[in-house]
């Protein structure tokens, strides 16, 4: 997973089957010191994250597990999802 | 997933049989936040009828491979959806260095009015004509 900051939202009406109603957020990836590293990720969101929120983003099959747990989620077209909204980090 | 713009299409008669029905698009990722990315592109399968000039969300890896209906396709990038609108937070729009890169990548002219490349970008917003009006 990576950490990042939600900087916006992407709206797409025409989507692949099965993704209706899914929220897509723009996340700017950050390094351990909190600086933007120059990468922008589009991540699915089920936690109702808002712009400015510090989040962790899961990639790969971990991202699909956020949307629908279990082995039978390979049909989901998703490679990045918000796994947690960060309140504090030490 | 990544945000990208469709810049072309690929035709190929001799192709893997598992790709027989797939439409192939050339996309340029907007995978930037601060510095502009060097020119780079991807070829992605398209099942949602995206066209040149559209901004799209691209899914990479195994989910893209499965998007054509079976798990054994030679695919690693697929169009997930066609972007109607991108909303940027106020912070992202005002952060030094951040917003201009995104705005340039999305083809939205700067408020200051000085020309910054991509002169035809506003005309390449796709059939919806809506563009990223909120940026």
Structure description:
The complex is a heterodimer of chains A (90) and B (135). With 90 residues, chain A is mostly beta strands. Chain A has one domain (2-85): OB fold (Dihydrolipoamide Acetyltransferase, E2P). Helix content of chain A is 8%, strand content 47%. Chain A has one helix spanning 61-67; strands at residues 2-11, 14-15, 23-30, 36-45, 54-59, 80-85. Chain A has a five-stranded antiparallel β-sheet, covered by helices on one side. The radius of gyration of chain A is 13 Å and the shape is globular. The two termini of chain A are 17 Å apart. The model of chain A has no long low-confidence stretch (mean pLDDT 88). Chain B is α+β, with helices and mostly antiparallel strands. Chain B folds into two domains: 2-12 and 20-82, EutN/Ccml (OB fold (Dihydrolipoamide Acetyltransferase, E2P)), CATH 2.40.50; 90-122, no CATH class. Chain B is 13% helix and 27% strand. Chain B has helices at 62-66, 90-94, 98-105; strands spanning 2-10, 23-29, 42-46, 55-60, 77-82, 85-88. A five-stranded antiparallel β-sheet of chain B has the order 3-2-1-4-5. Chain B is elongated, with a radius of gyration of 16 Å. Classes of the chains: A mainly beta (90), B alpha+beta (135). The A-B interface holds A 6-16, 19, 24, 26, 28-29, 36-44, 51-52, 60-61, 64, 74-80 and B 1-3, 30-35, 47-50, 56-57, 59-64, 66-67, 71, 78-92, 98, 102.
């Amino acid at each position: 997973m990576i950490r990042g900051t939600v900087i916006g939202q992407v709206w797409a009406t025409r989507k692949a089957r099965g993704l209706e109603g899914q929220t897509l957020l723009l996340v700017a990836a950050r390094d351990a010191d909190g600086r933007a590293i120059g990468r922008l990720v589009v991540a699915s969101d089920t936690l109702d994250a808002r712009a400015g929120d510090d989040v962790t983003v899961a990639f790969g099959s971990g991202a699909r597990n956020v949307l629908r747990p279990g082995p039978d989620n390979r049909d989901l077209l998703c490679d990045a999802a918000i796994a947690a909204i960060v309140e504090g980090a030490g | 997933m990544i945000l990208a713009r469709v810049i072309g299409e690929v035709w190929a008669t001799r192709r893997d049989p598992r790709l027989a029905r797939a439409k192939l698009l050339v996309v340029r990722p907007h995978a930037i936040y601060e510095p502009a990315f060097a020119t780079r592109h991807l070829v992605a399968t398209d099942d949602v009828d995206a066209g040149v000039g559209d901004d799209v969300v691209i899914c990479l890896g195994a989910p893209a491979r499965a998007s054509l209906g079976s798990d054994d396709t030679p695919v690693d990038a697929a169009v997930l959806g066609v972007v109607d609108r991108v909303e940027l937070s106020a912070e992202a729009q005002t952060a030094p260095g951040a917003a201009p890169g995104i705005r340039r990548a999305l083809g939205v002219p700067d408020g200051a009015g000085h020309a910054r490349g991509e002169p035809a970008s506003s005309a390449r917003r796709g059939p919806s004509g809506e563009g990223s009006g909120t940026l």
